[in-house]
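#structure-requests
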Amino acid sequence: MASAPKRFKTAVESGAQGKSSTDPLSGFLAWCGRAGVELNPKVRLSGEGAVAGYGMLAAEELEAGEVLFTIPRTALLSQHTTSIHALLQEAQESLQSQSGWVPLLLALLHEYTASNSHWQPYFSLWQDFRSLDHPMFWPQEERTRLLQGTGIPEAVDKDLANIHLEYNSIILPFMKTHPDIFDPKLHTLELYKELVAFVMAYSFQEPLEEEEEDEKGPNPPMMVPVADILNHVANHNANLEYSPQCLRMVTTQPVGKGQEIFNTYGQMANWQLLHMYGFAEPYPGNTHDTADIQMVTLRRAALQRAKSEAQRQLVSEQWDFLCQLEMVGEEGAFVLGWDEVLTEEELSVALKVLCMSEEEFKEYKEQDGWEDDSEEEENSTLSNEALSRLKTPCKKLLYDSVLLTLESYGADLKAEQDLLNNKEAYEKLSRREQQALHVRYGQKRILHQLLELVK
């Protein structure tokens, strides 16, 4: 249970002293005070001393369980609180999309460009979104050169295709039916793309109650002023809590005076952080980092070791059966963490089936992929220790798949390690080159660790 401090200051009392009225942070803090945000006097918001951009710092020592700030739901920016919420509600059927973000993005398009918007002081913190440096804004050549093999270029291509589709098929038609509010010359595709990145980096999705998870899809994203100023690390020291009237940021561990207070965006691998938020954590900070082996790479390794047409045909049949079992797919990936395989059932079953003889596979098919519970349990838990105990054919297939995966990168692990260890050379890299290096290096470390386990 979080304990509230003895006294709260309003946000404007806590951070605006001595600041010019034209300072964006001072104006934002004043807005917070008017909006009913309560900020603990033991913390301060600052553009200095944080790991990136703005951040929250401890002005005094904090204990675990202290409430850092409380924000009423009326201060959140969402499809339900925007000044055009009635229009969005009326058109909700036509605004449905694959992402589920369109209503919020329309709200942002309007509120960001309306001079009388209630949220203008909030938007002033980002000016023209120049601080957003997601890979979707990188030139394609740079994205491919720096991020080849990481999975990010493919994710960005899907994002960009979806952004164009949503803008042209949903946003533009809606704007044309409301010319008094929207102007395609002002509310452009480029601005829409920037706002998609803004939602990626700064929005929150309220978690569903357990009983709701099977009944409805995820809650739509919303913007949470103040909460989105906190930066992320895997080893965070604060967490956002939701209640019917308000949201509260609460410390999860003691925080020393002068230290930065970090929220968590979830258990995110570095490639996800760079793709969605525009940054990555340097090794070894991200304990949630992962590496992928594309499922089709496992099939490719199995086909390469087949010595005859009959064996290649067997691999094809085994793969088709795995697809029927929904264990593999043409676009899927096996996900490897530092300590275990996160897609353990899929990889365990795939290795087992692809290493079967023709007779074993025939019998397995006749049982529709079922096996004894004890055997299934033994094969589905793939910790690092369990990986080292795999049968030799499974080890060989996994080893070959890792080698094929490593070939997809532009440089080997030693070259990346040498660059990280050479401080002078590292500091000469651009910010994009540094972030991409952290992503590649973490993935390759995990893959090389797996090579050692199944050697």
